[in-house]
Amino acid sequence: MEHPTNTRIIFADSKEEALKQYQALNIKPEDPDPRVECYKALEEEDFDVNAEFNLVGEVSLSPPVMETIRKDPERAYVIYYMEKLAAKR
Fold first, then answer.
1. How far apart, in whole angstroms, are the C-alpha atoms of residue 66 and residue 84?
2. The pTM is what?
3. What are phi and psi of 52, to 5 degrees?
């Protein structure tokens, strides 16, 4: 089963630029072949920039994250890895 990990809010002028910035963070996922999910917050159907919480893709955005997005909502992208995580014993 896949799980979202390493969620970041990236401010960029395009999806491609946002993905480059995310990759430049050099985040090391556990999964050797994770999928990267990238959403422009304002383009999500049920996204409400004034709401306390939002759901974007597979992640819930908490009040502190929403405060970050409200700093520049037109350029805010939500990016994260979808990883197949091994069960830890």
1. 27
2. 0.92
3. -70, -40
